[in-house]
Structures are given as structure tokens and as C-alpha cells.
Amino acid sequence: MDEPTSSTKGSSSQPSRQSSATTKGVGSQRSRFVLKKKKLSTQTRPEDCDYSSLLSDDKRIVNTKCLFYELTDKDVDSDGLTKSEINEARQTGVLKLSHRYLIKVPDIVWSIEILTEEEKKTLSFRFDDKEAQPWWTYKNLESLDLSHNCLKQFCPKGTIFYSLKELYINNNSLTKISDEIGRFQELRVLSVNDNDLNYLPKNVCDLKNLVELRLQRNYLETLPEELGNLFNLKILDISFNKIVTIPYYIGYLTSLVELNMSYNNISVVPEEIQSLRAVKILDFSNNSLSTIPNLNDMANLTIFNGSSNNICEFINFCGCQKLVEIHLQNNMLKELVIDNLQGVPLNKLWLQNNKLISLPEDIFRLSTLTLLDISKNQLNRLPYRLAHLRNLSCLKVDDNPLEDIRTDILRSGTARILSHLKRQSIAFDEGCDKTFTKGKRLSIADDSILFDSNVDDIQDGVLKMNMRTNHCLVLSNMKLSQLSASLLQEAKKEEVFRIDLSKNEFTSVPDRLEMLAFNLTEIILKQNNLRVIPDFIGQMKRLLYFDISNNKLESLPLGMATCRLKTLIAECNCFSMIPEVVYAITSLETINFRDNKITKIDVDGLKNLKNLYSLDLGNNSIQEVPPELGYLKYIKDLYLFGNPFKLPRYEVLSKGTEAVMAYLRNKIS
User: Fold this and answer.
1) Exposure pattern of 101-122 as b/e (b: 16+ CB <10 Å)?
2) Percent of the chain with pLDDT over 70
3) How far apart are alpha carbons 317 and 325 in whole angstroms?
4) Which of 31, 108, 223, 538 is 20 to 30 A removed from 8 (C-alpha atoms)?
5) Is the pLDDT of residue 207 over 70?
6) Degrees (nearest 5) of the Cα angle 337, 341, 346?
7) C-beta of residue 638 within 8 angstroms of C-beta of residue 655
8) E-strand stretches of 397-497
9) Does domain 436-668 have CATH number 3.80.10.10?
10) Alpha-carbon distances, residue 531 vs 41, 181, 513, 523, 554 (angstroms)
11) CA nearest 561: which of 506, 619, 605, 620?
12) What percent of the chain has pLDDT above 90?
């Protein structure tokens, strides 16, 4: 995405609406006339064509090469639709009536699926009758386009309520939508943008199948509470309105993929926004926000726009594993917090026109960054480690009081600036320890040793020393898909009790890991491509900590029931329920199944886990929290944020586990 055009900070004015005073008046004259283009002959002059009498004096036609022709009953329906248009709508299921200057919806639209007596007489039931109307090809009306007209009200009626899936009434002059709109139960797309609405009827929220709702460029000040009932809604655009607060029930729209609330007067974002774990594009730009809640639960967030607000603190994006663009220009930020971007594959970061005084030295951790705009701030120096961002191709530092870089270098562009910083960083890096593997130099920015995937060839002293002194084998982030027998023999000899295989390419747990079954107390297998856990895990009688997060698991083996696990981390997988075997591991103290697809809480199963202290089921698909959960008083740390249930509300959840448990018990009494 290219850099958005910056606008005046804090602007909340509505966009200009195109005047259509000249064109809207033509609609009143269209009952018996249509506008047809006809090429004039060389002998005919435009001024000789007498069409001005068809219009009132103040609504003269401008294009002199367009003529009005009166239609006969043979060509046109009484409502202004030609028979060919009606037949096309019946055959395609699509009726397009946009840009016709309509001041009301033609009556034929509401009964277009019903044949007249005359039409019934022309029908033939013989398939070999080529002259007959092919009635078997008729479709129910599924798409109706009434956009770019002069409608002031929309009052549907008739027989199309049960088939319509798309309705476009945008770019009109609507001040009211009839409650009858709630009868379009099959509606998927509703476009009402660019009108004059100051409220949204509650009946719109009865459209349970609605996927796309566009309300931008109206005069809305509030949203109905029933909006939270649109569980299937994926796109919601309410930009360019007069909304002051975002209601808490926005958090119920857990299917949302795109949410645009830009250009309003919003001053507060509710914490419930964290429940939108499916959202990919989130736009809060051009409002009056000073803070935004942590967004670290939005694992699918791809683009965030919070530009042109009054944000003072850098937002926490940790856990946003797909976030590639952040727009925070035109704010009041004083500091860039790299820890808030941990694990974020960020490509583009816009921070121009803020209050930044310095950049953190560990900015090199943003290794995937390709664009960084820090112009119009208060920076007096750039950290040398910027040169370590190998993917950085666009660096904008204009309008900063930089003291350590000459003006001619700044004017030469990104490559020259980074080259200058790289030369300055050489002396700084000379004091850092350099670690070597066999024939390879390691980057000082890496946390783990990088080498070829053939583990049998590794004779690394660091690994042996770590196994001998700490009894740990750390092989994280090495693109491994298998383990060598010799390495595990060495680990068994040194009585290794902890093994870290995270951030690799394992599709299954290595069978050779069974060699360490007697000693292992901690196994970390997060961020691989695991689909199955083998039964031999149940043979690890000393296993206390098992981390299988960020994989593709759907079940766990029954053999795990004999384990003495205390901690089970299984977040970010594909579980639709907590496996039954988990309830048999009575030693469990911590269970983490957040970011899965779990739909319900099994209280009866949890009753078996008397040692359970912490239960994390956040960011799942739980529709209801059973009140009986409140009686499990041994649970002291309960996390349920990011689920689509309506009760308990965020105000209760934010008070902590004890308050939630008390609330659930009160519901029973």
C-alpha cells in the first residue's frame, strides 16, 4: 500500500458532497420519456431539434446531441422499465437502475418476478418452441442497484424480500430507510453510503446473513445496540460520519475482516475491540483518539491505520503475526517501543509528524522493514544499527534537526544514508563478541546458532557446553525437519532434561525424541507444522511442561493421560474443543488453549482438575459462559477475552478472575 495522503490533523469536517441540483430535477419528467443518444445527420443542426418543451425553463438539457423520444406502450412498462430490461432482470437475477434520476422506486420492481396475465398467455411449455419465452431460465431477483439517483426514502414492498442478496441504494438523498428492510433475510450486501441518514433503523440489524454493510458519508451519530447481532458481518464501513463513541457491542462482531471508522469524532476505543480476532484491516484515522487499547490479540491483523489522531503512547502489537503496515503519522508519539512489535513481520511503518526525540538502538530487530518514514519529528541523531536493516529500501528523515549526518548525505537518499550509518557502526561492532560455527560467522543480532539442516555434521562447542552445564538442548529457529541420532545420544549422555525445538519445520514429533523419554521434564515444540502428537509422549513420566503452541493440531493422544504434566500450552492451533484426555491429567496447574476454535466450556471436565490454577480460553468461538464455572474456586487466573459471548461483559472481565467468578455464581442464585 502506498503512503496515504496526509490530511490536516484533527480534521473532523465532512467531505464535500457533489451537488446534483441540476440533474435531480430531470427525474420528474421521465415518466413517459427516456433519454436516447442518436448521431445527428450532417443536415440536422442541434438548434433545430425541438426538445426544450419537454423540460421546464430551469432544467434545460445541456448535451445537444442527446434527444428525447417518447416511448410507446409496446416498448415500455407503465413504471418506466422497458420489456427488455424486465426480461433481462428475470433471466439474470440482476436489475440495474442506477444513474436514472429516479425520485421513487418504480412499482414494477417490487413485483418483477410476477408475470402478468398477458405474459402468461405467451408462455409455452414446449422446449422445442424457439419463439416462446424461455420461462425455465427465469431467476429470482438477487441484486438490485438503485444507486446514484434522487431517492429520499426507501420503502420496499412486494415479493422480492425472500430472494434479494445485494442491495445498492448508495449515492442518493435518503433521509430515512423503512423498517421493512428487515424483511430481506437473505441479504448479504447492503450499500447505503453517500446519503443523508442521521440514524440507522434497528431492523437493519435483523439481517443475520449480512456480510457487507457500507454506511460511509452519512450523518450518523450513534449505532444501534442491535448491531452486535450481525455475527456474520465481515465488512463494516462507517467512515465520514459524526460518531463520537464506539459502542462496546462492536466486540460481538467477531467475523469482521475489515473495519473502517475513519473521519469521525471518536475519542475512545472500547477494550472490546480486542475481541475482533478475525479483523485484517483496522482504520481509526482522522479522529480524536489519545489512546488505543492493546491489539496484541489480533493475530490476523494485516494493516492498521491510526493516523491523524492525538495518540501519545505506542500501541502494543505483540502477537500480530500478520501485521505488515502501521500508519501512525500525525500523532503525538514521543517514543517508538520495539518490544511492542515483538514477533511482528512489519514491512512499512509511517511515523512522520510526531514528537519523536530519538529512535531505540534495538531498531535493528525490525528485520523485515522495507519502509520507515520518520520525517517531521525532533530527532537529532539516527542509531547506527539502522544500517543492519538489510531490507530497508525507503528511509525518510526529512525535517529533523539531525546533527550527525551532513545535509548532502541526507539529500542523496536511503542508500547513501544507510551506507554512512554502516561505516559509523563498524567501530561500535568491533567490541561485540563474534561467534563462529563450522565455517560460518554468526550475526550478533541472532539469538540462536544458524547452520545447515544436516545436523549430523554439527560439532559445535556451544551446544555441547550448554548440554553439559545446563542440561539443555536448544535448537530453535534452525529450519530443522529432523534430528540426528548422534546429537540425541550426546543429549542422553549429558542427561538433558529440557529441549527446545521451536520455530523449525517439523511436521511431526521426531521419533528419536523417545530416546530422552526418561529424563525430559520440558519440551518446547511451538511454531512448527505439527499435525499429530505421538503416543510415546505418554511414556515421559517426568514431563512437566509441554508447549505445542502455533501448530496445526486438532487432537491429543489418549496416552498422554499417564503424564504428570503441570503446564500445557496449546494456543494457536485448530482445536474445536479441549481434548478429553486433558481432563484426565489431574496434575495440570496451567492450561492454555487460546486462539483456537473452541465453542464451549466443559465444566464437568474441569471439575476433575482440582490442581488447576490458570485457564486461558481467550480468542476462541465460545458463545456462552456456563454459570457453573463460577463454582470452580480453585481457578485463580481465568482469561476469556476475545470470545463472541455477550455476558459477562468486558467491564466484568476487566475486573479480574474473582469478579468474573462471583458474577457467574450470582447468575445461578
Assistant:
1) bbbebbebbbebbebeeeeeee
2) 79
3) 11
4) 223
5) yes
6) 125
7) no
8) 436-437, 440-441, 472-474
9) yes
10) 75, 46, 17, 16, 7
11) 605
12) 49
Question: What does the DSSP 8-state code read for residue 301?
Answer: -
User: Assign residue 379 a region: left if phi > 0, alpha if psi is -120 to 50, beta otherwise?
Assistant: beta
Quote the CA–CA distance of 324 and 344 in Å, as a whole number: 8
Residues whose CB falls within 8 Å of the CB of residue 327, separated by 6 or more in sequence, listed in order: 4, 285, 303, 304, 305, 306, 307, 350
pLDDT digits (tens, 9 = 90+) for 261-308: 999 999 999 888 888 889 999 999 999 999 999 898 788 999 999 999
Domain ranges of the chain: 33-70, 436-668
Are 243 and 262 in contact, with CB atoms under 8 Å apart? no
Supply the pLDDT for residue 451.
36
- Range with top average pLDDT, 36-45, 161-170, 213-222, 428-437: 213-222
CA distances from 227 to 201, 206, 236, 249, 277 (A): 10, 9, 11, 7, 18
> Residue 320 carries which side chain, given as an amino acid letter?
C
* Long-range contacts, 373-377 (Cβ 8 Å, 24+): 373/3, 373/329, 373/349, 374/400, 375/399, 375/400, 376/352, 376/400, 377/351, 377/352, 377/353
The rounded distance, in Å, linking the Cα atoms of 542 and 652 is 39
Q: Angle formed by the axes of helices 461-470 and 485-493, to 10°?
A: 30
Residue 485, classed as helix, strand or coil, is helix
Q: Are 301 and 282 in contact (CB under 8 A)?
A: yes
The three cell numbers of residue 340 are 511492542
Cα–Cα distance, 203 to 182 (Å, whole number): 5
Grid cell at residue 234: 465481515
Tell me the sheet residues that pair with 348: 325, 371
Q: How close are the terminal C-alpha atoms of the chain, in Å? A: 54
Q: Which three cell numbers stand for residue 433?
A: 563478541
**Closest-CA residue to 525 (of 544, 543, 499):** 499
Q: What is the pLDDT of residues 84-136, one digit of tens each?
A: 888 888 888 999 999 999 999 988 888 887 776 676 666 655 555 555 556 66
SS3 of residue 160 by DSSP: helix
Phi-psi region of 318 (alpha: psi -120 to 50; beta: other; left: phi over 0): beta
Pairwise CA distance, residues 13 & 440, whole Å:
59
SS (H, E, C) 18-78: CCCHHHHHHHHHCCCEEEEECCCCCCCCHHHCCCHHHCCCCCCCCCCCEEEEECCCCCECC
